[in-house]
Amino acid sequence: MRWWHFVLGLVGLIILVVVVGVVLLSVQDVNKFKDFLARKVSERTGRELIIAGNFDLSISFSPSITADNVTFENAAWGTRPEMLKLGHVEAKVALFPMLGGDIEVERLILEDMDLLVETNEDGVGNWVFGEKKAEGDGDGGGGELPVIEDLQVRNALVVIAMARPASVMW
Fold it and tell me: Is 72 within the bounds of a domain?
């Protein structure tokens, strides 16, 4: 009978920690999370992510992030500084996979998107990450992309610029 008390106490403690965590996160300055997110993306890709507009973080069993005026740096050899410009982005992620270190995006909405996909003379695409080394990191970034279950793109401009013919690249 005593082990049930231990299990119930442990479950209660876990619930208390989660509730306290949610409360603490909800009263924090979300700009700290904006900077954290931008830094993590930059570390993983070797490119700068800038969130210049509003940023909101909603904590729940399906946490969500919304951001305005987002830019993602192009490759150093690219024809313009930004690979991607977004007027608005919303991402709803699954909580439980995130606790294990994986990111599963349940819904991703990209609005007012301007995307440049280009290659250099060597046939390397600007979607290949890792040209820059993150501080204190031996490799150049990279990593796996998250799973995206539902992708919605609204009002988009996609420019494809190839320095080499496509038959050579593919």
Answer: yes
Q: How far apart are CA 92 and CA 108, in angstroms?
A: 7
As a whole number of angstroms, the distance between CA 42 and CA 64 comes to 20
> Amino acid identity, residue 129?
F
111 within domain boundaries? yes
Name the token pair of 89. Answer: 């982005």
41 domain-assigned:
yes
Tens-digit pLDDT profile for residues 138-169: 444 445 667 889 999 999 999 998 887 655 44
Q: Is the dihedral of CA 18, 20, 26, 31 positive or negative?
A: negative
d(Cα 54, Cα 26) in Å, to the nearest integer? 16
What is the C-alpha to C-alpha distance for residues 147 and 93, in angstroms, rounded to an integer?
10
| pLDDT (tens digit per residue) in 104-143 | 889 999 999 999 999 999 889 998 887 444 444 444 444 5
Q: What Å distances lie between residue 80 and 32, 53, 83, 84, 146, CA to CA?
A: 29, 21, 7, 10, 26
Establish if 19 belongs to a structural domain.
no
HSE (side-chain half, CA atoms, 13 Å) at 31: 3
Say how far apart CA 34 and CA 48 lie, in whole Å. Answer: 13
